[in-house]
């Protein structure tokens, strides 16, 4: 009976404790929500600020004018064409090499020290600061190989930069393909390459594309490595057109042309003392953000869709 | 009678051989593609070492590592890397002071408190924000955060490490939150259920069970964030100033290693000059800094991983 009395006496304390703990729970949930919102709201504020500041320049002229000493007349023409051409080089080099490397590591590579070496390299490269790639390109592409400060150099630099992203996403996409698919293909007499290309690669297409898009959007916004190779900031001409009217219809002179890209143009406008140029910078920033967010958004949405629609 | 038999086999054999050769060739091509990654690493180390060695022919390593003045572009040139390192460490420390608490608490909230639906919405947004180009954050630091800070401390200069560091921190929050949340989600449900069965509240479970179990992943996220902050270029180049300055005072303006490289690359120093070589020496220091953080990160994740 004594024992029972003490339990009832303590009940009040226990209830107080439970109350306290529940309050702690709520308090922490509130703090967590606050922190999360603090991060998100600040970032939203940043985008709003960019859009509000750059609003006066959201005109078609801004896209069709060259840079100028007069802020009001300056435009992005050479910058966005430059970005487009550099991204083309990056795409053409990084995607085949990255996908091939991913296929090799996942489907062919034997389990030995050599494969380990490649894997360690890939994961290490993903952690190398982007400006180091710029130094590599400056020493190797610009001077040793003599490509100069050209679209080719910039495109190859960014290709090396996004290579780990493409390789890792290719491998993840391939890993999602069940072994039974490969065994079925081998069972009807396919060779290794037929299995890898006709089945593994084709079924993991969506996942690979996701990684490619994320990589390309990273390349679009990257500034530091391109500044390091010495891209010019004031370009009032367009590179030679890649497509010509007379045969052979393709012209590769643009590869060795000088160039500027959108983030560099923004950086240049930002560093000027005249406030009128800062409006141009804000408009450029808004454009870069919209394009990269659209690309990343598409990629994340695709990944979500693929995860939901797996049929095996 | 034997001749026709031989004839009927040999085309098949020939086809087989062709097929095997083709398979081998494809395998070699794919391997070469994988080797590009290895070649890149060697090329980075090679280029940095090659140019740095030429640099150290003119400048003594002792001066480089212990000198307190960095003025390679002046007539009276001094090559002490310490001012750049102090700038880099100060801005990174500010960034982490902002990002680690906010990122971690956000991750705990997302993983342990938020409903499934909230998580499904917030997680993609975090991934989206990790991809925002850094040059845009430079604009934010220079034209939004610094004016705000100047309202608090009127004698703050336009270029200062505090504003740049804070913005870098905001930039890294989604990174830490996303990676830590992944680590916490990987803790098996049975551990939480065990904790709840003992009468623990959500808060107690989150702090005393889930966080310790996921600590290797969380710390690895911090270390990767440090290496990202140290290597970050555009925010500090735009907002922290370009003047090397041996100080840990966040209110002052100072250049980081990355900002110095950008500054030199924007000008036109002749190829092969000491100034040109100095950016490779600075890059080598940066590379070693981030590499050691990355290695520590991998080690922590391996060493302290709780396997279930």
Question: Which terms summarize this structure?
Answer:
heterodimer, A: 312 residues, mainly alpha, MetI-like fold, 0% strand, flat, B: 308 residues, 2 domains
Q: Can you describe this structure?
A:
The complex is a heterodimer of chains A (about 300) and B (about 300). Chain A has about 300 residues and is mainly alpha-helical. Chain A has two domains: about 1-55; about 60-310, Orthogonal Bundle (MetI-like fold). Chain A has helices at about 1-55, 60-65, 75-110, 115-125, 130-145, 150-175, 180-185, 190-205, 205-220, 225-230, 260-270, 275-310. The model of chain A has no long low-confidence stretch (mean pLDDT about 85). By secondary structure, chain B is mainly alpha-helical. Chain B folds into two domains: about 1-60; about 80-305, MetI-like (MetI-like fold, Orthogonal Bundle). Helix content of chain B is about 75%, strand content about 0%. Chain B contains twelve helices and no strands. In chain B, helix 3 runs antiparallel to helix 9. Chain B is flat and about 70 Å long. Chain B starts with a helix and ends in a 5-residue tail after the last helix. Classes of the chains: A mainly alpha (about 300), B mainly alpha (about 300). The interface between A and B is large, with 90 and 86 residues. Chain B: InterPro entries: MetI-like (IPR000515), MetI-like_sf (IPR035906), Phosphate_PstC (IPR011864). Chain B: It comes from Methylophilus rhizosphaerae. Chain B: This is Phosphate transport system permease protein. Chain B: Its main location: membrane. Chain B: Keywords: Cell inner membrane, Cell membrane, Membrane, Phosphate transport, Transmembrane, Transmembrane helix, Transport.
